[in-house]
């Protein structure tokens, strides 16, 4: 259960995020960007423990694996990671960035979301890679969609006049998108080559996963700081409105 | 063991490299953003300075015009009245003296009227419709041409600066029509196409001119830049023999 301090930190973050959610429930209900940011941060810390839980509850995991056609290895939980990290998380990130963008740029992200959904349906429908194994292609497409959304955000940040009145270092969306951008680009190569590397050089995979874990903790800290800033009396800028 | 250690070192180094890269990215973004903010601030200051300059020059023009009007009034009207008053008061006849005193009262009234137009406070008291009505009435009373004023809805109160610019532009348009067009009729229409903007159309049935030929003077560009200074626009359409139409579009 607790293989290292990062695993422990996931549980600590889950507890902290639950407390934040309870305290800031009205704010999350009102503001869609806060809601998506919370969902993203929570999914990142909750996915590994839930994945671990599926390995513990073998019966349920075995049934799900069998549903996806895996009868040999009922302990595999890659399907869970595929579902959350490579389907739900890219969608949540795109929705988050969609909520931050001005109207003209929103259409671009919307097209990206529809395109990604169509790709997922075709990819999973045709079973190009089995769903119960790590899906490198899905990881690559999901990551590219996230990176494209982040680039769109940075482009609008640098070109839209509404941002001129904003102090960038106090803008939560800037830090959130920057950390998402770096987290995804940092783990891009290891995510898409995970299957290959774990077969050829499992020690290297174990080592390289540390980069993902440490950057993930840094990212969770940033999101936690954004959520708790009002309670900690840290003055943050509001997202500019595009009237 | 050594292999594992070198892997760890490589990963730590790559982690540090990416952290550095991220820091550089953040610093670069903030730097570019600050530069954009500075540029925008400079542009805003420049626009404000230009706006103030335009207003100042318009105020100067109005004051100069007012002074020459005052000069004319003093010479042609008050001076004459005072001379007559002096003659009447010097007379030994009581009815002439009484007439002189009544003239003195008239002079006082005229001087009071003049003192009111010496500062620009009248601009604040006057609405744009009132100003237009006065100007058109003045034109009609001189017998140059017929005038007509139409207004769909009353204009909401405009700030003094905006009103000064509009007054100056309207005066210039009417003067140009009288000077160059020889019209039989000048009509002015005010409309409010939306809650945020107003349209003022000045139309004459005079000689007109080919508006596609660029004018040699700076009058038109001055009018256009003045309208821009208050966030509005100036559009002129004219054809030889078909009169001239000027559309002033401005925010309210």
From TrEMBL, chain A:
Source superkingdom: Bacteria
Protein keywords: Membrane, Transmembrane, Transmembrane helix
Q: Which residues are listed as membrane-spanning?
A: 6-24, 36-58, 78-100, 112-131, 137-156, 168-188, 208-232
What name is this protein filed under? Uncharacterized protein
Which organism is this entry from?
A: Algoriphagus aestuariicola
UniProtKB/TrEMBL annotation, chain B:
Enzyme type, top EC level: transferase
- TM segment ranges: 6-32
- Which GO molecular function terms does the record list? kinase activity
Histidine kinase domain ranges (all copies):
69-252
Provide the alphabetized UniProt keywords: Kinase, Membrane, Transferase, Transmembrane, Transmembrane helix, Two-component regulatory system
Q: What is its EC number?
A: 2.7.13.3
Q: Which reaction does it catalyse?
A: ATP + protein L-histidine = ADP + protein N-phospho-L-histidine
Q: What is this protein called?
A: histidine kinase
């Amino acid at each position: 259960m607790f293989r290292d301090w990062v695993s422990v930190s996931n549980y600590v973050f889950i507890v902290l995020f639950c407390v934040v959610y309870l305290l800031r429930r009205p704010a999350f209900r009102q503001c869609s960007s806060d809601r998506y940011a919370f969902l993203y941060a929570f999914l990142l810390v909750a996915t590994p423990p839930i994945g671990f839980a599926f390995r513990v509850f073998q019966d349920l995991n075995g049934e799900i694996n069998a549903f996806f056609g895996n009868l040999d290895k009922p302990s595999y939980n890659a399907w869970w990671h595929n579902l959350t990290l490579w389907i739900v998380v890219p969608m949540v990130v795109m929705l988050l960035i969609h909520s931050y963008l001005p109207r003209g740029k929103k259409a671009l992200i919307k097209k990206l979301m529809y395109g990604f959904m169509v790709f997922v349906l075709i990819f999973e429908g045709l079973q190009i890679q089995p769903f119960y194994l790590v899906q490198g292609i899905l990881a690559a497409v999901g990551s590219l969609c996230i990176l494209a959304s982040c680039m769109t955000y940075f482009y609008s940040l640098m070109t839209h006049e509404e941002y001129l009145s904003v102090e960038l270092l106090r803008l939560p969306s800037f830090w959130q998108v920057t950390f998402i951008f770096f987290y995804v680009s940092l783990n891009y190569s290891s995510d898409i080559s995970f299957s290959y590397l774990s077969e050829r050089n499992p020690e290297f995979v174990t080592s390289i996963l540390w980069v993902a874990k440490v950057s993930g903790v840094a990212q969770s800290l940033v999101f936690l700081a954004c959520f708790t800033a009002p309670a900690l009396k840290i003055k943050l800028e509001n997202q500019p409105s595009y009237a | 063991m050594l292999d594992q250690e070198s892997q760890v070192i490589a990963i730590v180094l790559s982690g540090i490299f990416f952290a550095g890269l991220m820091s550089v990215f953040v610093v670069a973004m903030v730097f570019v953003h600050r530069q954009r903010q500075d540029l925008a601030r400079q542009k805003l200051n420049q626009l404000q300075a230009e706006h103030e300059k335009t207003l100042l020059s318009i105020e100067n023009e109005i004051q100069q015009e007012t002074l020459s009007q005052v000069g004319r009034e003093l010479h042609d009207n008050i001076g004459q009245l005072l001379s007559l008053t002096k003659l009447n008061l010097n007379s030994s006849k009581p009815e002439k003296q009484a007439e002189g005193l009544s003239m003195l009262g008239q002079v006082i009234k005229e001087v009071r009227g003049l003192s009111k137009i010496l500062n620009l406070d009248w601009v604040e008291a006057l609405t744009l419709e009132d100003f237009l009505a006065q100007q058109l009435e003045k034109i009609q009373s001189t017998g140059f041409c017929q005038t007509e004023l139409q207004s769909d809805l009353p204009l909401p109160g405009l700030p003094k600066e905006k009103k000064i610019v509009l007054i100056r532009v309207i005066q210039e348009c009417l003067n140009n029509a009288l000077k160059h067009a020889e019209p039989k009729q000048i009509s002015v229409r005010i409309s409010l196409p939306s809650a945020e903007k107003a349209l003022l159309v000045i139309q004459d049935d005079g000689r007109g001119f080919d508006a596609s030929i660029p004018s040699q003077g700076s009058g038109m560009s001055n009018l256009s830049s003045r309208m821009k200074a208050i966030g509005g626009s100036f559009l002129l359409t004219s054809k030889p023999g078909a009169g001239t139409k000027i559309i002033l579009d401005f925010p309210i």
